[in-house]
Amino acid sequence: MNMKTVLVLLLLALATIFALVCVLLTRARAPSACQQQPSAQEEADDGHSQVFADLTPEELAQVVQYLRVSLGVPLADAARAKPSDNCIASVDVQLPAKAEVLRFLDAGGARPPREALAVLYFGAQAEPNVTEYVVGPLPAPTYHRDVTVQKYGGKVPYHRRPALPAEYKQVADFFKKQVFPAAPSFMDQVMEYDGANLAAVTAAPRGSRSGDRLTWFVMFQNVSGFFLHPVGLEVLVDHSSLDLTQWAVHRVFYNGQYYRDMSELERIYVQGGVHVEKVRRASQDGDFSSMRPRAPVAATFPLQYEPQGPRYSIRKNLIIFQAWSFAFGMSVTTGMRLFDIRYNGERVVYEMSVQEALSVYGSNCPGGMSTRYMDSSFGIGRYSSPLVRGVDCPYTATYVDTHTLHEGLSSSRRTAALCIFEQNLGSPLRRHYSNLQSLYYGGMVNSALVVRSITTVGNYDYVWDFIFYQNGAIEGKVQATGYTSSSFFHGNGLQYGNRVWEHTLGTIHTHFVNYKVDLDVGEVKNSLVAHDMAFEVAQAPWNPEQQIERPRLTEKALDTEDQAAFRLHSTMPRYIYFATNKKNKWGHQRGYRIQIISFAGDHIPEASSMERAISWARYKLAVTRRKEEEPTSTSVYNQNDPWTPTVAFADYINNETITNEVRRGWRHGLLVPATPSHTLLMGSTETAAKHEESGLECCWAVGTWAAGAH
């Protein structure tokens, strides 16, 4: 090959690379008009999905302006508010009642008014409290109404409020100015404290009884991946007073020993009575906890591509993919959620959303042993992290920005908070190779649409996926990555985890994830049916002397909430599906099967004083009657007062009839179509289910799930 040919080939290669880069950069922008011809579903859509849409930055600004003018009280910026101030904690969309939405979507009724839900902290009132207002109509509000008592049966006490970032900053200032200076020798010689080399992680819940606001703060080296660098010091702070000067230390823990406060630790240390475990100071990149690559990449990773462009389209908050269409949104508290999911134009799910992510820890250190994180309280949607092209999602994915207003007076934009992509699953949807009698092969490529967000709550990164398969199945899936939480290794620590570094104990813990699935299969009035298999002993028709054990199908209608609530260690029927009165051409009831892929073990003993706050985790699956006054399986206020829970899911299950009703399900798994029914697959953790006046709310469940249709 001569030099001229080589140069030509190199130029062609560079041109190809340049063209590919241009394509990828173009796709990196927010979703634009679809390149393919609009489908009938797209042409028929007239903005109905906007009834579920998140608030725009303009709407959020209008709500804030209205509240500042109309409430008649000064509102501080939550980013700098003291506990004794009034402030706006968050503003989110207030979804209309389901009955109103269905009249609008299906019966040509009026569009429901667009409203916002504003959560305010009133620390400057005679009786400090948390109040929730519905504000509307948008975009030009003229009214607000207090819905707190209607939703929760009473006012929300102030001590139940989730902590604002401002409160954590005030705690950090308290440590720097009051706590650490009380033990100067210990902090200098043992902690080598320089004012910036320690990071604190909060435990939760805060205290041991209703009304407490006492928090264990666990100290770590302030380096990359600090979650794996505990230093052995933990401090219990009482920050219940609205007067910052009244905050106090209630207890101190260091290397297996407890002290009344930092002054006592200092005195005993100076006397030589403290057993010191000197922790080697880590480099700023964290050494073993660094996220830097350990070795150069040997070869380029496999990539996927779309030969003719994406086969899905996005219009505002509406996604259309082959036979599927659905609306999407992002809740500040619970993260990604989907509405009005249709297959071939027929609604199969009204709402599918995450409700809660729970972690229960064990340790021989106080912060670890007392931790029961309920991540919605911190904000699953609030902490959605920007997605990185080619790592968090494929290069060819479409990325969507979101806008939220929390803990401030203006909205914030989260770049690339969601991604949407079609994925080749690498295995056939169906295939057969015949080598008996006739020779032939038939197969179909298996691909699915994935809608993804990733939430970073403290040390954990949760990868949330809703997956739509070509065969009518829907899957809800979560993966956990990031860093494990750790405790300082001392004493009998190996009873509570594994040692992962010199002074680091990777602590035992559980993960429970709760989903809500409001199934409307064929119509809003569904029934729950359990199919299983039993063996019957029968005489062989061709030989009366021969017995045969043959499996047969058993069927049972689950008519009440008690029958449809499956405890963690109970036996579940092999097949559970939501059935409609409509039948297919073979006479089978149409429906969706619910399939649990994985679920966790025990959440916490029911005898525990805080168990009712997380009572949804008692169940692998629970199906309840749908009620507007039971919209969620938990509350953000449960974290800081689990002893008197604002919402207790167990109260929803009171043996009401669910047959031929609209059911709501609470769980984690997969929905999959089945011949007599559809299947809903659910997976890793536990979930639970619910039911309302208009029907059954598929499930409340824990874990990973999937569903499908017949």
Describe the structure.
The structure is a single chain. With 710 residues, the protein is mainly beta. 14% of the residues lie in helices and 40% in strands. It has a 27-stranded mixed beta sheet that branches. It has a 5-stranded antiparallel beta sheet with strand order 6-7-8-9-10, covered by helices on one side. The relative contact order is 0.11. Residues 23-38 and 673-695 have low confidence and may be disordered. It holds the Pfam family Cu_amine_oxidN3.
Query: How many E-type strands?
Result: 38
- Major sheet size, sense and barrel closure: 27 strands, mixed
Coarse morphology:
globular
Helix content: 10-25%
What share of residues are in beta strands? 35-45%
Using the CA coordinates, give the radius of gyration.
Answer: 28 Å
Low-confidence stretches: 23-38, 673-695
| H/I helix tally | 10
Oligomer designation: single chain
Distance N to C terminus: 60 Å
| Structural class by secondary-structure content | mainly beta
Average pLDDT figure: 88
Cofactor: Cu cation
Pfam families: Cu_amine_oxid (PF01179), Cu_amine_oxidN2 (PF02727), Cu_amine_oxidN3 (PF02728)
GO molecular function, one term: quinone binding
EC number: 1.4.3.-
Features:
about 700 residues, mainly beta, 27-stranded mixed beta sheet, five-stranded antiparallel beta sheet, 10 helices, about 15% helix, quinone binding
Topology:
Elements: H1 3-27, H2 40-44, H3 57-70, E1 86-94, H4 98-106, E2 115-122, E3 129-136, E4 143-146, H5 148-152, E5 156-157, H6 165-179, H7 184-189, E6 198-202, E7 214-221, E8 230-238, E9 248-254, E10 257-259, H8 262-270, E11 312-315, E12 318-321, E13 324-331, E14 335-343, E15 346-361, H9 366-369, E16 372-374, H10 375-378, E17 398-406, E18 412-424, E19 430-436, E20 438-444, E21 447-457, E22 460-469, E23 474-482, E24 486-488, E25 497-501, E26 504-507, E27 509-519, E28 527-540, E29 543-558, E30 565-567, E31 575-583, E32 589-596, E33 619-625, E34 662-666, E35 670-671, E36 679-688, E37 690-692, E38 696-709
Parallel strand pairs: 32-36, 34-38
Antiparallel strand pairs: 1-2, 1-17, 2-3, 3-4, 3-5, 6-7, 7-8, 8-9, 9-10, 11-12, 12-13, 13-14, 14-15, 15-16, 15-27, 17-18, 18-21, 19-20, 21-22, 22-23, 23-38, 24-26, 25-26, 27-34, 27-38, 28-29, 28-31, 30-33, 31-32, 32-35, 33-34, 33-38, 36-38
